[in-house]
Amino acid sequence: xxxxxxxxxxxxxxxxxxxxxxxxxxxxxxxxxxxxxxxxxxxxxxxxxxxxxxxxxxxxxxxxxxxxxxxxxxxxxxxxxxxxxxxxxxxxxxxxxxxxxxxxxxxxxxxxxxxxxxxxxxxxxxxxxxxxxxxxxxxxxxxxxxxxxxxxxxxxxxxxxxxxxxxxxxxxxxxxxxxxxxxxxxxxxxxxxxxxxxxxxxxxxxxxxxxxxxxxxxxxxxxxxxxxxxxxxxxxxxxxxxxxxxxxxxxxxxxxxxxxxxxxxxxxxxxxxxxxxxxxxxxxxxxxxxxxxxxxxxxxxxxxxxxxxxxxxxxxxxxxxxxxxxxxxxxxxxxxxxxxxxxxxxxxxxxxxxxxxxxxxxxxxxxxxxxxxxxxxxxxxxxxxxxxxxxxxxxxxxxxxxxxxxxxxxxxxxxxxxxxxxxxxxxxxxxxxxxxxxxxxxxxxxxxxxxxxx
Length: 454
Fold this sequence. Notes:
15 strands, five-stranded mixed barrel, extended, GMP Synthetase, Chain A, domain 3
């Protein structure tokens, strides 16, 4: 079957994610697991591990007992025992890898403690399951309206129907304990199913709903992260991140889980760094720490002076920050402990001035100015009238070139006459014709588009 979130599904498998139908519960890449023990053959006489892991809507997973030893693989849709009735889920893990998962979660390994696997899902079961799932969004909206009417301090985030339609699980978040006994009665009367309320945390809500993080990828909690460790602001301080709650908070409103991913690497890198609160004493003055580059092992200091020796207030001498290596900072601290002070923060004997290489044009010293288009200078003498943009402009140029020998008077007359010959339809056409006749008396007549031949 094709997953409901893949709009490119054709037939029984989605063509968009190329997963061949194994993401049949809700969304793609929902806590997928790669079974790295699937290709390993079991020892002779040993039966496969009878417990399997089944994935339901969102990030909910449970373990079931495969009592009848069905040959199941990842992605199969099966019917399992529920209370009451049955439910449908997708097999997410089988074999010996389930034993490792149970040991990691410190759960029992006895198969009798888990619910049973009934059978592979029939086509009728899947059709009924899809019909029930279409009611979830409408149910959640009505349930929220009922909760608001009862003035309950809670937020309904998701609804999950059982495959047989006999039970519905409502997931909600709340700051404290909520008395929802009256809510359950009204929900049961409206939807005619058995109601179960489950309180989840804010991070579990983000895991169920999913989304896109600020990094552009899907949320870690909805794709692969299963255990939520505590995240504190000290993790951001160790990594030299600004304590901006907008940037450090995830979609759940808590600190991002990814702040812990590289924390151990930063702690190892700064293990031998000196204390940044210590001031460095030199003959030039006192220096205080400003910032640190952990992986370049550089620390920046600036000189300060104290206006009053009795006060601890200090001000910078200038805005220059001096970069110093971590080894140099340790050396100055040891000298200060012995009562000695270096001349400056930077050891000039070990300072080597690097030669700066200017940029050289290796493409033949050619300028790219020839590729730029030259801007045309506007003609101040030319009047901005509609006749200059029509065909009369062409006639104006022809008539003006022909009458150059007549001097400035002919030019003016030629241009004036050619404006009228160019098809100017303004009300001043007759006046322009009379002016043209007065200026060109005694000269051969010519049309605007047909200059007179000599």
